[in-house]
Design a protein that fits this description.
The protein contains 1 helix and 18 strands. By secondary structure, it is mostly beta strands. The strands form 5 sheets. The protein has a 4-stranded antiparallel sheet, with no helix packed on it. Strands 7-8-9-10 form a 4-stranded antiparallel sheet, with no helix packed on it. A hairpin with a 4-residue loop joins strand 17 and strand 18. InterPro entries: WD40/YVTN_repeat-like_dom_sf, WD40_repeat_dom_sf, WD40_rpt.
């Protein structure tokens, strides 16, 4: 070890029982008892978001030690992806197995922040399982990808309560990862990785050989 270097400290991390105990292992649907599986996860400094097989989003506030629940109306279906964002308001995007995407604008106790829970829906473009979500840093843009290769751009106006969505790219294989920064969307599929320039609507492939 180089002189003056800080010593390495090993830590043992335990299961988050305080979080897991707040999520039911089974729910009752009529006469049936349904096992709850945890299907998606995202974290930041304020929240831990956990998606489930029953279409319920469990959102744990790390500062208040409180668990809240959010769900989709209608059909109960598995949540496949969740993505948190902390900007001026706290936002969480949720994708499901049938291609539904919703954005929840969370309530904040801080002055000048959002005081009422609001939900925005990305209507009817995805028809298959959501596999990736990516936010712009200011929360005004959301990109969603599915397992049929479709990528949808949603423009959010939180002040007006408006969400406008459009299909921007379609790949021949499933989307596995999205990341957005400075008007460039990084897209990884089962076959290739590419850069999508959102202003020019042009594509630049990363590398030359397709994935096997």
């Amino acid at each position: 070890m180089a002189s003056g270097a800080s010593p390495v400290i090993f830590k043992e991390f335990c299961p988050l029982y305080y979080l897991l105990n707040a999520i039911p292992t089974k729910v009752q649907k009529g006469f049936r008892s349904i096992v709850v599986y945890l299907t998606a996860l995202d974290t930041n400094g304020d929240y831990i978001a956990v998606g489930s097989s029953i279409g319920m989003l469990y959102l744990y506030c790390r500062h208040l030690n409180q668990m809240k629940k959010y769900n989709f109306e209608g059909k109960c279906e598995s949540i496949t992806f969740v993505k948190l964002l902390s900007c001026f308001d706290d936002l969480v995007a949720v994708g499901t197995a049938s291609g539904r995407v919703a954005v929840f604008q969370l309530v904040s106790s801080l002055p000048g922040r959002n005081k009422q829970l609001r939900r925005f829906d990305v209507a009817g473009i995805h028809k298959s399982s959501i596999t990736a979500l990516a936010w712009s840093p200011n929360g005004m843009k959301l990109f969603s990808g599915d397992d049929r290769g479709k990528i949808v751009y949603s423009a959010l106006d939180l002040d007006q309560g408006i969400c406008n969505s459009s299909l921007v790219l379609e790949e021949p294989s499933s989307i596995v990862q999205l990341d957005y920064n400075q008007k460039v969307l990084l897209v990884s599929t089962l076959q290739r990785t590419l850069l999508f320039y959102t202003e020019e609507k042009s594509v630049k492939q990363v590398g030359t050989q397709p994935r096997k």
